[in-house]
Each structure stands twice: as structure tokens, then as C-alpha cells.
Write a structure and sequence with these properties.
Layout: H1 21-32, H2 38-45, H3 48-84, E1 89-90, H4 93-98, E2 104-105, H5 109-134, H6 143-157, H7 159-187, H8 192-224, H9 239-251, H10 257-287, H11 296-330
Antiparallel strand pairs: 1-2
Helix pairs in contact: 1-2, 1-6, 3-5, 3-6, 3-7, 7-11, 8-10, 8-11, 9-10
Length: 349
């Protein structure tokens, strides 16, 4: 498991051992690009013993790159803690709900160091396994070219994983910033009315962004499954949209699923506008107290922190959406096309 999400990032890690021989061959051929001539590679891959060796080597490189990525990831977390003091933070769940915030973020120094040790050992173990495996390679094979092909393939297949780990780095900062802004807000000792306004604004924005993100996810799912008759996404958490869709299905039984989906979109847009109105009205109410406020400069600070937290909240939820879309895409087969090129580089020495 990793930081900033309950999901295991290995769901984005390819497993070449589970591919059929033909699937693996096609992947390698598509990765040759300008590195080598495809006919040369096909000739080599048709030799069963060498094919098995290359397949095993690819999986070893896959594991090696993954352990290296994770080691770098946890090294970043350690560095962030040492240089900026971002370790782990927590508030009560009651406090989190009241302020529409995440109640915890980060990990302890002890856990970070444990993970670093774990991935360092994996990294070194995988590196040694590659070294030992390379000893089995027939001398007639140009391993420099083979390694380039494998590295290109693994790098391409781990692109989404790499992007997800980068997203988690950003999420850690955003969640730490969220806690800092909430702390700053209460540190200004706002009036109870100002606290109430802040909570209303943050809750409205939180609800608005959640429903907009649900819609984005639903549209993405629909785009990827446009040939399916069902309009209920499997394995995708869309509580508000599912509720609206179900209610409309009972109310308008003569409508087609497509028509109900369109009506659902309209309802979602109405909800989003409703939450926006709530937030704007509360902002206006806060601004209107300036004239009678005993400390207008303090009120300006309070409003500024409220707005900062609102922007941070929107950004954080956008990055959460990104992870959900990645999960959706990882479980959806997508056809990809690759340009094929032949060069004069040869595999056999």
C-alpha cells in the first residue's frame, strides 16, 4: 500500500508472465520502433529458449523498475519530512467532517524508513537477478539492443504507474496544506458566525466538486462502454448519480436509458449550480460584515484563508478524480496504435 490513497499502486503494474506468447511478442515488436529491424527480432523470438529468456528478463526489468520507482518515492517522502516538516498529520473524524477535510495524511518517520529499507532490498535483489539472468544469454545475441527494447517496453507500460506516483506526491502536499490552512483559520480566532460561514462554504464547494467529478467519471465510463446496454457503471462509486438515475428510472418508465442519462446530467448540473449559489451567498454575507467589523484587517485575513482553503480543496479533489480515472482506464481495454519503423540495426552479432 502507498501514501495518500488506500489503493495498492501495483494495480497499474504490468505482469508480462500473464500474457500469452503471441501477446508478449506483439508488445516487443511494437516497442522496437527505431531501435532495430522487426524481422531480426521475430527471427530471435521464434527460438523458444531465447524467447523464454527474453520474457523472463522483461519481467525482471519490470520488477526492478518498480522497486526503483518506489524507493525514489519514499526517499521523496523522507526528504519532504526532513526539509519541510511534512510527516503525518491527523485531526478527529468529527473535525474532518465539520470542515470537509481529510482527517489524516502522510506517514510516520518510522514507517517511511521501513519502506525505504524494504524497497532498497527489493531494488538490489532485482538488480542481482538481472545480472545473473544475463549470464545465460547466448553470445550471439546483442544484449545492448535487447535491453534497449525491454527498457522501452517497460517504461511505456509503467508510464501510468509513474504518473500515479507523481500524483501521490502532489496529494501529500495538498493534504498537508489543507491541514495547515485549517489550523491557520482557527488560529485567527474567528467569530462563531465566521466559522459557520467557512464551514458552509467549504461543504458547498466540497459537494459541488464531488458531484461534478462524479459526472466526469460517469461520462468517461460511458465513453469507454458506449456499446453496452447498462447505464450503471460496475465497480465505480457514483452515489449521487446512481441515486438520481434510479429515481428518474422509476418516475419516467417510458424513457429510454439514454434519455434518463441525459436527464441525470441536467439534474447534476442543477445541483452543481445550487451548491455554487450557496457558497457565493455565504461569501457575500461575510463580505457584508466588513463595515461593522471591529477589526476589518482581521476579517480580510479570515476571508483570505477561507478562499485559499477553497482553492486547495478544489485542486485536491481534482487529483483524487485523476486517480479514479486511472483506475477506470486500468480496467478498460483500450485499443492503441503504434507506428512501426524498420532500421538497419541488427540484433544478431
Amino acid at each position: 500500500m502507498d501514501m495518500e490513497t488506500s489503493s495498492d499502486p501495483t494495480y497499474l503494474l504490468p505482469d508480462y508472465s500473464k500474457l500469452s506468447d503471441s501477446q508478449f511478442t506483439q508488445k516487443l515488436l511494437k516497442s522496437t520502433s527505431t531501435v532495430m529491424n522487426q524481422d531480426d527480432l521475430s527471427f530471435i523470438l521464434n527460438q523458444k529458449e531465447i524467447f523464454v529468456m527474453i520474457r523472463q528478463l522483461t519481467q525482471l526489468f519490470n520488477k526492478f523498475n518498480y522497486s526503483k520507482l518506489q524507493y525514489e518515492q519514499w526517499s521523496y517522502y523522507l526528504s519532504l519530512g526532513l526539509t519541510e516538516g511534512i510527516w503525518n498529520g491527523r485531526v478527529s473524524k468529527k473535525m474532518a467532517v465539520a470542515n470537509s477535510m481529510c482527517y489524516t495524511y502522510g506517514r510516520s518517520t518510522t514507517l517511511i524508513k521501513q519502506q525505504l529499507k524494504k524497497y532498497k532490498q527489493q531494488f538490489e535483489k532485482n538488480q542481482e537477478a538481472i545480472y545473473e539472468h544475463m549470464k545465460q544469454v547466448p553470445s550471439i545475441i546483442n544484449m545492448e539492443i535487447i535491453n534497449n527494447i525491454i527498457n522501452d517496453l517497460v517504461s511505456e507500460d509503467q508510464h501510468q504507474l509513474h504518473a500515479e506516483l507523481e500524483r501521490r506526491k502532489i496529494m501529500l502536499r495538498l493534504e498537508a496544506e489543507e491541514h495547515r490552512l485549517i489550523e491557520n483559520f482557527y488560529g485567527l480566532k474567528p467569530k462563531q458566525t465566521e466559522i459557520s460561514s467557512a464551514k458552509v462554504i467549504w461543504k458547498a464547494i466540497h459537494e459541488q466538486q464531488n458531484i461534478i467529478n462524479e459526472m466526469t467519471l460517469f461520462k468517461k465510463w460511458h465513453e469507454l462502454h458506449d456499446q453496452e446496454s447498462s447505464y450503471t457503471p460496475q465497480g465505480v462509486q457514483l452515489p449521487t448519480i446512481n441515486h438520481i438515475f434510479t429515481v428518474l428510472s422509476f418516475q419516467r418508465q417510458t424513457f429510454t436509458a439514454e434519455e434518463i442519462a441525459q436527464q441525470t446530467f441536467k439534474k447534476v448540473e442543477e445541483f452543481a449550480k445550487h451548491y455554487s449559489v450557496i457558497a457565493n451567498m455565504e461569501q457575500t454575507k461575510l463580505q457584508s460584515t466588513k463595515l461593522n467589523h471591529r477589526n476589518s484587517a482581521l476579517l480580510e485575513q479570515i476571508i483570505h484563508v477561507i478562499n485559499e482553503r477553497e482553492n486547495n480543496l478544489i485542486t485536491r479533489l481534482a487529483y483524487e478524480l485523476e486517480e479514479k480515472i486511472n483506475r477506470l482506464l486500468s480496467h478498460t481495454p483500450i485499443k492503441q496504435t503504434h507506428a512501426q519503423h524498420n532500421t538497419e540495426t541488427h540484433l544478431i552479432m
